[in-house]
Amino acid sequence: MRLPRPRGPLTAALFARLAAPPADQDRLAAPPADQDRFRCALPTDHDRFPAVPHRPAGADLADGDLQLALFACYELHYQGFDGVDPRWEWEPSLLAFRAALERRFEQALAGAVPRPAAVPPGEVRAALAELTAPGSGPSLSAHLRRHAGLAQFREFVAHRSIYHLKEADPHTWVIPRLRGGPKAALVEIQADEYGGGRKERMHAELFRATMRGLGLDDSYGAFLGRVPGVTLAVSNAMSLFGLHRRLRGAAAGHLAALEMTSSLPNRHYADGLRRLGGDATAARFYDEHVQADAVHEQIAAHDLCAGLAAQDPALSGDILFGAACALELERLWAEHVMACWRDGASSLDPPVPHEQSTDSAGSAVASTA
Question: Is 98 in a helix, a strand, or coil?
């Protein structure tokens, strides 16, 4: 995966720095406690990471510049980028910059997602069930099942590729942060996500087959340069929760919310894909989730989340907050996609010239006709 085009001052500065190897002198002093300005020991002001601007917190969830910068920082812990020196992963100046981005993101989540009240460990499962109960209003999965054309379904899959091509990886960071029953429960879920040790059954590989069946570029990160900030925020929340031990409760709740709200939408996606002519191979990813997530939701709610709250009752509020964040980000993302489609517009950014050569279905994805 290559670095995409910058979307503002944060990504412009970050990508310029990542294009060169970290130098020995490229070290940062401890940042002042009262500001988010991180100065590098390099000759000119042009070589500094910029300060992360203060904006209304709600705007940050959809801010393409901030979310792409944070996504790129996190990606160094996953597959990385072509041409980016792997030593950047743990470079102190980059970690300090990422910390500033994370503070803005956490503030945005706190502002957008009312924090559920903590409950006793014995009530965590019921509280999760209440949070994830089906709501009213337009349903993206119902639209894809009954009404979406092939171009819209391709757009949907392009958005989802940002996470599904590394499916399960963000939550796997949590395994060494747990112990006992909750750890075993998470390992059980993740083992299924990774196909029980068989590459062809890994969920990321099944999704790759779905992309190929739709004529889309299935290479890792192919659509990173085209998805909006809110799509990146969905993925960034998983990485934020997974990479910080202090947020392990939120990571567990986030995973539970995904599993508990997955089976019916995936049935709709499979039905919609078949309606549009998709074959069994293309639909297998969704069929697999209809079955697997019906089991995973029980493990996640009871053995993982309720078990973790029983071990550490102070985490019950974090568990419910993580679940609420997953649901709210999914809602905001679906609202963005549906609003674009109602206006007859694409929910993706148009490809830039070098991306057109690698996306065999670029014109179809960009159209909602």
Answer: helix
**Is residue 47 a contact partner of residue 215, using CB atoms and an 8 Å limit?**
no
* 79: Cβ contacts below 8 Å, ≥ 6 apart: 1, 166, 220, 221
Residues 6+ apart with CB under 8 A from 194: 168, 202, 203
User: Would you give the DSSP letter of residue 149?
Assistant: -
Cβ atoms of residues 349 and 225 within 8 Å: yes
Class of domain 121-366: mainly alpha
Name the pTM for this structure: 0.89
In the chain, % of residues over pLDDT 70? 86
Write down the residue that tokens 């964040």 correspond to.
325
Residue type (1 letter), 222: A
C-alpha dihedral over 169, 174, 179, 180, to 10 degrees?
A: -40
- 76 burial (CB, 10 Å; 0-12 / 13-18 / 19+) is buried
In whole angstroms, what is the distance from residue 151 CA to residue 340 CA?
13
What's the whole-number average pLDDT of the chain? 89
Kindly state the DSSP code that residue 2 receives in the 8-state scheme.
-
Q: Residue 277: left if φ>0, alpha if ψ -120 to 50, beta else—which one? A: left
Task: Domain ranges for the chain, please list them.
Answer: 9-112, 121-366
Which residue, among 279, 72, 251, 265, has the nearest Cα to 160 in the 3D structure?
Answer: 265
Torsional sign, CA 234, 239, 242, 245? negative
Q: 3-state DSSP call for residue 180?
A: helix
Retrieve residue 353's tokens: 């010239």
User: Do 182 and 311 meet the contact criterion of CB atoms below 8 Å apart?
Assistant: yes
Ranges of the chain whose pLDDT falls below 70: 24-48, 53-58, 136-137, 353-369
CA distances from 286 to 40, 157, 260 (A): 47, 11, 15
User: 180-193 and 280-298 helices cross at what angle (nearest 10)?
Assistant: 170
User: Encoding tokens for residue 343?
Assistant: 């206006």
Task: Please state whether 149 falls in left (phi above 0), alpha (psi between -120 and 50) or beta.
Answer: beta
CA distance 292 to 255: 14
Rounded CA-CA distance 224/71 in Å is 10
Please state, in angstroms and rounded to a whole number, the distance separating the CA atoms of residues 272 and 39: 51
